[in-house]
Every structure is written in C-alpha cells, then in structure tokens.
Amino acid sequence: MRIGTIIKEYRSTHKLSMEKFAELAGKSKGYISMLEKGENPNTKKPISPSLETLQNIASAMNMDFDILVSQLDDNQLISNSTTLSAYSDFLTQQTTDKIENIQDISHRIRELRLANNLEQTEVADYLGYKSDTTVSKWENGKNLPTGAKLAKLAALFNTTTDYILHGKDITPTASPDLLTQQITDKVVQLTPDNKKIVLRTSEELLESQKANGSIYRQKNEEETKKNEVSEEIVSLYQVEVVSETAAACGFNYGFGYDDTDRENIEVDEQPPRHDIATKVSGDSMQPDYQAGDILYLVDKGLTTYNGDLAVIAYGDRSYFKKIYTENGRLRLVSLNDKYEDIILDFPPAEDTHIKIYAVVGVYRGG
Q1: Among the four residues 21, 137, 292, 357, which has the most C-beta atoms within 10 Å?
Q2: What is the pTM for the complete model shown?
Q3: Using an 8 Å Cβ cutoff, are 71 and 41 in contact?
Q4: 202 and 180 in contact (C-beta within 8 Å)?
Q5: CA-to-CA distance for 77 and 48, rounded, in angstroms?
Q6: DSSP conformation letters of 121-161
Q7: What is the distance, to the nearest Å, from the Cα of residue 290 to the centroid of all Cα atoms in its chain?
Q8: Range with the lowest mean pLDDT among 30-44, 108-122, 255-269?
Q9: What is the 8-class DSSP label of residue 61?
Q10: Contact criterion met (CB below 8 Å) for 242 and 277
C-alpha cells in the first residue's frame, strides 16, 4: 500500500482533517496533500518521503515505525528516489521489542477472533477476501491489517483499532510542532547558565504576551509564519474565483460584477489558462464534481454542443451541466440521476442574455 493511501484511510477512520493530521505529523498541509495524491503537482513526479518523515507519520498515527513500514509496498519511493526495499539493513535492525510488539498484535487478533466464535474464513469473507490467507498471515505475524481493513476488523470484533494495535484505547495527542522541536534541539545544547537565560527570556515574553493579549499573539503568529521552516517547498497559486451570483450575471462580458462577487483562493496546483473561475454549487454533478470544487472556464464562442461540460449563464440563472444542442434549444444534463434535464430556448428571447463557458479544468478542494 502507498503511504498516501495509508494516511488518507487513517484520516477517514479517525475523522481527522488534513490540516489536523499535518499538525500531528509536524508537516505542512500542502505536503500531506501531495503525499495523498502521490505526486508533486508542479513536476508531476512521485513524492519520495524520507525515513524521518515516515517516522513522524507513524508517530502521528500512534503506530510503531516498523508496523507502518510493514504495510508499505516494496516499491514505495523514499528520499533520493530509492525504494523502501533497498533499506533492508535498516529495517532488520529494528529492536526485539518492536518485533515482539508485532507478535502481540497478531496474538490479539487471534484471541479476538476466537472470543467472537469466528473462523478465519468468516473473517476473510466479512472483509471481502476470497480466502483466509491474509487473515492467517495477520495471526502469524507475517503481515498486519491497516487503514479501512483495520477499522472493519475492529468493528467485527466490537473493539477499537487502538486496542488491536496497542492493547488499550489511546487518545491521539499532538506531537510538538516543527518550530517547538527546533527550539528544544537548540536549548539542550546550551550550558546551564545559558539555559537560565533562555528560561528568563521565555518568562518575560510570556508575561508580555499575557499583558498585550490578542494583539501580541497575532503579531507573534505573523512572525512565526515568516520564519517557519518546512521540509518541502510547496508552490501556491492565486486564483480569482467569482461567485455563483456573478456567474448568473454573465461574469464580466457586458453584465458586470463587483468586488463582493469574487474572492482570491490559494491552490497547490497550477491552473490551466482560463478566462474565469467559479465554484461548484449543489450536488447535481455528483459523484464526479463536489460542491466547492473550482472550475476553470474559457469562452470558446461555440454554437454547437454534444455533451460538453459547460457553465451556462442564462437570464438570471447559472448552470453547470453537460450541454447538447437540439433543434433550436439546449438540453442541460446533470450527472446526478435524481435531477431531470433542463430545456432552454436557443437562441433565447431578445430580453434574455446567454453566455456559455467551456470547462477546461477543475481543482478539487482537500
């Protein structure tokens, strides 16, 4: 399994946002997003996390490092484009305690199965496996369940994933953030006298922070962001997005919109060339498009359509649909079957404006 898949399944199981998981792992949200997508949006090359990064991710999951590694594909790339299998010497040096921990997990899986009067074949069938081979490997310590399979296994045994992995329920706690860890690493190298200076300075800053309240905190946060060090540099792009109301008014092609109709949004993927951008609203184009997705639009000036994805500004309404031209009218078709087709006159009456924009790209929110 790829590291991005493991992270995504863990977040889904534990109902963690990408931002919260990034905080637990001491990484940026943009970097976690790239891990889950499996590639750098700028270079389109696979992401290669370092061993240190994998250790941070394991810590964020309250999981031993070797357990996480055991779930990864052998061809999982790590830093310098090397596969994980090339680090066999490193992996074989894991401590006896960790090896025993894997056996503890295998033993708990077997005990839970027997306590619930289940055969290995019944567990395998519940999890969607054709045979009991995988379950047998779990109980023999040759492999371990993870992600969605681990969650389903816990549900079947009427327990928690934390109990299966650790023998007790654990409430995830936040790891020190990157900046705090950097400060700690420096302080431990100081002489006792210099440590006292740091302590006094910290106490003075804390008192000043309390005295100045939120104004000081805001200033301090701004300075922190300026000096923040990240393992990966993630390029962000500004996209001006117009509202659905502006879309209904025909955007800026003679119908106009003001500053209240638009906002600037940062995205981590380079947008294609486009005339205008807007957000998806509603569920008529699910499952392919979700509310909040950003659509990049181009005015191609076409008059004939055959299933093209488009945003249509028609009168005082706007639609995101598949569009067809049929005998002096437009047929607008949703991807969601619960919505009926919409029929519009084409060309419309003289007092009704129309503008059709082709969809040339989409940015899906994290």
Answers
A1: 357
A2: 0.37
A3: no
A4: no
A5: 5
A6: HHHHHHHT-SSSHHHHHHHTTS----HHHHHHHHHHTTS-H
A7: 15
A8: 255-269
A9: T
A10: yes
Report residue 87's pLDDT band, with 50, 70 and 90 as the boundaries: very low
Q: Which of 142-154 are b and which e, b meaning 16 or more Cβ less than 10 Å from the residue's Cβ?
A: ebbbbbbbbbbbb
Q: 3-state SS of 344-366? A: EECCCCCCCCEEEEEEEEEECCC
Q: What are phi and psi of 181, to 5 degrees?
A: -65, -40
One-letter amino acid of 25: A
Residue 105 token pair: 């997990």
Sheet strands (E) in the chain: 77-78, 82-83, 237-242, 262-267, 276-279, 294-298, 306-314, 317-325, 329-333, 342-345, 354-363
Q: Six-digit token pair at 338?
A: 């619960």
Long-range contacts of 225-229 (CB under 8 A, 24+ apart): 227/179, 228/178, 228/179, 229/178, 229/179, 229/182
The radius of gyration computed from the CA coordinates of the chain, to the nearest angstrom, equals 27
Helices in 15-50 by DSSP H: which ranges? 18-25, 29-37
Q: Two tokens at 14? A: 């534990």
**Structure confidence at residue 280 as a pLDDT band (50, 70, 90):** confident
The first and second tokens of residue 360, run together, are: 């040339």
Phi, psi (rounded to 5 degrees) for 5: -65, -40
Amino acid (one-letter) located at 213: G
Give CA–CA dist 15/229, Å, rounded: 27
Extract the tokens encoding 17: 């946002």
